[in-house]
Structures are given as C-alpha cells and as structure tokens.
Amino acid sequence: MTDLREKSVAPVVPEKVGRKRRIPPAVAILLGAALILILTYTLPPFRNYQLATVGAYFTVTAGLTVLTGLNGQLSLGHGALMATGAYTFALTQNRWLSMPLSVLAAIVVTTLAGVVIGLAAARLRGPYLAGLTLAVAVVVPSVTSTFDTTFNSDMGLSIALDPPPGTIPMERWQAWLCWAGALVTAFLLATLTRGRFGRDIRAVRDDETAARLAGVHVARTQVLAFVVSAACAGLAGALFAVLAQSVSPGAFPLTLSLFLVMAIVIGGLGRLVGALLGALLLVLLPALAQTAGERSGSQHLEGNLALVIFGVVLVVVMLAAPGGLASIRFTLRRK
Amino acid sequence: MDRFVYLTFDGLSRGAVYAAFALALVLIWRAARIVNFAQGAMAVAAVYVAYSVTDATGSYWLGFVAAIVFGLLLGVAVEKTVMRFVDHSSPLNGVVVALGLVLIVQGVLGILFGNEYRPIETPFRRDAFEVGGIALLSRYDVFVFAAVGAVVVALTLLFTRTAVGLRMRAAAFAPDVSRLLGVPVGGMLTLGWALAAAVGSLAGMLVVPTELGLHPTAMDVVFVSAFTAAVVGGLDSPIGAVTGGLVVGLLLSYVSGYLGATVAPMAVLFLLVAVLLGRPGGLFSHSKARLA
After folding, report:
1. CB proximity list for B29: less than 8 A, separation 6 or greater
2. Domain count, chain B
3. What is the ipTM of this complex?
4. Is residue B238 part of a domain?
5. Which of A235, B52, B120, B288 is the most core-located residue (most Cβ within 10 A)?
C-alpha cells in the first residue's frame, strides 16, 4: 500500500526552475531545421523515410507530453485522434487534391474531436480518464466498419498524393514535410508552455483547488490542453497518411496509443526533448528488434520483440525513475 | 419477440462474463486503488496456458484448472515483483505500469504462440435449447451462469463470513490500524491480486470461445466492456460490478442483434461517456468517505 514506504514526495516532473541557461526555442528550431536539411541530403532513401517517421511521431508525442506531463491528463486515445486526422486527410486529399487544404482539414476536424473528448475528460481523473480514452482507441475499427461506404472498412483508403515538386525524391520530400510539421509544432508548444498557458496547466496539474483560488479556470484550462494536444495528433495523423500514402484501421491499433505513452514516459514527462527522444526510440527500437528477429530466423520475434522491450522499458522507468531517463542524470548531478 | 427473448438470454450470458471480469477489476481497485489495465492481457495469458495444456493432454478440464492456477500465480507474481513498487504519489503511475505489463504480456505471447487467431473449443455445445419454438439458452450459457454464479457466491462468503475475508477488507480499508492489530497487510494485498487474477482468468476462459478466437489482443475490447461494467456499477461495489456486467451484456446483445455487431463498441463508448458524465461514482456508489 501507499503507506508502506513513505517516500519523500518529489514532483513527478523535475522542473528546472529559474536561472538555468536555455536555448531559446526559435534558435533550437532553426538548428534542428538545418540539421534535418543536411541529413536528408546525406542519408539514403530508406533512412530518410525513417527520419520522416521520427518527425511524424515527434509531432504527436510533443502534444501528448504537454497534455500528460504538464497537465496530468493521461490519454490512451491519441492513436484514435491520429486516425481521425489521417482519415480526414485521405478523404479531403482524394476529393480536392490539395495538400495544404487537406492538412488544414485534418487539423481542424481532429481539433473538433479533441473538443468533444476534452469536454468529457475535464470532468474525469486518473483511471477514469484512461478508461474513457481507451474506449475511444478501441472504437476505431468499429467506426470504419460501420460506415464502410466512407471509410472502406478494414481495407482502408489509398491516397492520391501530389508528386513532390521538381526532382526531389519522394522520401526526402516526406522527411521535409514531416519535420516541417514537427518543428512548427514544437516551436508553438514551446512558446505556448512558457507563457501563461504553461503556468496555468501546471498549476491545475499540481493542485486544482489552489489553481482555482489563484483565478485559473480549471475546466477551461484542461479542455484547452486536450484540444492543443489533439490538434498535434491530427497533424501527426495527416503526416502518417503522407508517409504510408494510405490509411487503414490496422495502422492505428491500441498498441500505437500505448507506444505513444511509452515514448513520452521514457524521455521524461512534460519535456519536449523527452518527446523527441521517445519518438526516436519508437522508430529505432522496432528496427533493431526486427534485425534481431531476422537474424534469429524466428518470424514470431519480429514485431513482438519490440513490444516486450517497450513494455519492460516502460515498467522499469516507471518504477526506477518516474521522471524519465532525463531525471536520472538530474538526481546524480545533484548528489 | 422470439428474437428479443433470444437476445435477452444471450445478453445475460455475455453479461455474466463481463460481470466476472468487472468483479476482478473491483477486487483490485478495492484492495490497492489501482485499475488493473493489464487484466485483459493477463487473462489472455491464462487462456493460452489452458490452450497448451488442453492441446497436450486432450482434456478441456485440465486446461481449465491450469488456467485458474496460472491466473493465481500470475497475480501473485505481478503484485510481488511490479505493482508493490509503484509510486502512488500520482494516480497515473499505476496505470502506466499496467500498460507496460500489457505490452510485455502481448509481446511474450506473440513470440511464443504467434499472432494468428486460434479457434478454441468449448466443453459444451453452443446451440440453444428451444422451449415452445423459441431458442433460449445453450448448454454453454448454463455453464457460464453456473461458473460465474459460483464465483460470486464464493467471493461473497469469503469476504463476509471468513476471518481471511475480514482481514482483507480491514487491510484495504485501514492499513495502518490493521497492521497494528497484527494483520499482514502486504500478504492480504498479494492475496487480493491473486484472487482477482484468477477470477479474470476464469472470465477469459469463458469469453474467448464466444469471440473471434485466441489472439494476444483478444481481450482488448472485452476489457473495455468490463471496465464500463465496473464503472456503471461503481468501482467500489462488487454488487454494482455484477449488475453493471449484466447491463453491458444486454446492451451489447441488443445493439449487435438489431443494429449490427460492428456498432457494439460504439454503444459501449456511449454508455461509458453517459455514466461517467452523469454519475461518475457509478450507479451503486455509496462511498463518499474513501476516495483515494
């Protein structure tokens, strides 16, 4: 039970208060963009594709880490929100063949979905919220099968993408698109969470009563946090659709939502750098596990080894260092 | 009308399984204030054990017993090695750790058994008896009712009539006082997890043959239904869990029967949203005193 081991109650997220010198977000984003540009010209096509996938994952983990880490709402439904974005993108793109319009539509529709779920979520806490969002994640195949004239059931939709401009190879173009989305998202989130919004959502996470006394509108703040994070998920969904050039319910299983949670927990909840690290691991670990599976010659090992590794990492990090990998370094330095 | 009667009995049979599964969730929630999101995955693991034993020996009942025993042991193992060490300062931690367990269990099952659906047989026939031309119950439904009924009665007796049950309730309700009075609080917690996991395994054994078949993710949707059942009844109330289970079972049966099977998960989602927004404590909630 809780009282067996009275731990000194440390905040889950080690927050760096005050005077540490930090790189301003704009500089970090520009450096990141330069790095991506260099990488896309030096890496072979398949690596470019993986790089693009990291960018797409980063877009959603960045939003999720703000929601879960800074505002304390755990969502298992972000896979479903991504599916919303991806399907909206596919339907709009196939109809009007305009990528900017489709991306915008994906973000808007997913944001609206986020408003609906967020309104419900603002009244729920802890396991109840997790259960509700889990139900949302599980409902995706059911929706696509019920309205199969629109969503084409389990088969999904293929997407007619505009060809990349000029002679740019497809993979490089995808990497640019994904990282443009990811970096813009990261910049907006970094700016947003440093301001009043960031203070409000942290205050609500730490103590709702105190926040309310200080004049923070608790429910509105929670809904807003969910909506912001849903918008990120919508954009990420559209990026995944660009990457796969198709959408199907099989691409957004419950496992995806669990992977996203793993990604934000491992790097340290509430930190954009942690979200980036998590996104990187989401691409690297399955690739490594697949190589290991191929080498051992066992078909069963391929997809499943990654599941086991993610699960073990999640449990171990949660038990040993709830603040994520970054917090281990933090405590060591302080000693 | 015939169809309505048939769907009602089918719904009650499904509901009995959800009730058992919801009961497992409630047992752990009452003992440890954790919603065990890994319950579904643990139950699937037990069903795989049953499948292997039945495959090797040819006897369904040996497999059945093996699943329940494995469930007990898995419950003990999970509590002793993982859940005991969860930091409870944030309610998120327990959930996230349980999700990690889900990934581990599903991954290990996939590695050991592969990711294809395996048909699993039932000990009794599933075609319904007819009374006056109306299809009512199958032998399997009767078996489900008997098994779940036995579990509910046994748990009720355990918690209300035995010293161990009293200690378990005391350990959950007031751990410090119980410890002073000599109750092994940690042991009671482990026992609670073991019982819950065994009940969950039983529910898994009952539900998997009626669904698509055995698969590492076979219980995902069932888990959501059972969670809904537990929330409908209030996470704190065993009677509520049983009632909630029957309500969810009936709802699913009517929706599948009249609107199509694919609509069923959406119906569960709507029910969950309605209950959470209308009566978050559940229909049978009467515990204002113990919130955390």
Report:
1. B35, B36, B230, B235, B236
2. 1
3. 0.87
4. no
5. A235
